[in-house]
Amino acid sequence: MFTGIVAATGKITSVQPQGTGNDAGVRLTIDSGSLPMDDVAVGDSIAINGACMTVVEKTASGFKIDVSRESLNRTAGLDGLNEVNLEKAMTMADRLGGHMVSGHVDGLGTVKKFEPVAESHELVLEAPRELAKYFAYKGSVTVNGVSLTVNSVEDTATGCLFSINLIPHTVAVTTLKHLQPGSKVNLEVDLIARYVERMMNVK
Description:
Layout: E1 8-17, E2 26-31, E3 45-48, E4 51-58, E5 62-67, H1 69-74, E6 83-88, E7 107-117, E8 120-128, E9 140-143, E10 146-155, E11 159-166, H2 168-173, E12 184-189, H3 191-201
Antiparallel strand pairs: 1-2, 1-6, 2-5, 3-4, 3-6, 4-5, 7-8, 7-12, 8-11, 9-10, 9-12, 10-11
């Protein structure tokens, strides 16, 4: 489990194919930047842009992970030499500064607008229609691993538009600063909303 509070930004420095077929995954080498790695062991979980991945090797400057083709097909930002948001799995002693995040990407969103508004930024995203029911005014959402609050929701014929206000600190310390209209982002809906849906639909 994670909190959606990004601990550091890192960079994918190498993308090594794990085979030659269309189903082959990749091994990523990640420079962990300022993320402390002294308490990380092989087998531990780290969220990369919101996707929970397993450390398979530690390096002098970070770590390596294996990403399956299924994960590559369902996420954004894990297939190139990109800057990424990093968060280690939480411990029972950690503060839950964001919200409960599983690290399982539910779908891809598309940036429709990302513009300064006074000292902050307004981020408007379009989510797939199948995820629309999970978004609510003042509810939680994870965008590329960042826990954020939904400010407005508008259902459309093809999906769901929702807006987020990003304070200067969030823009400065995460990779969200690089977003632009058309960018794809990893979305994880609120875990509690999923349980509510299940309880409401069980006969």
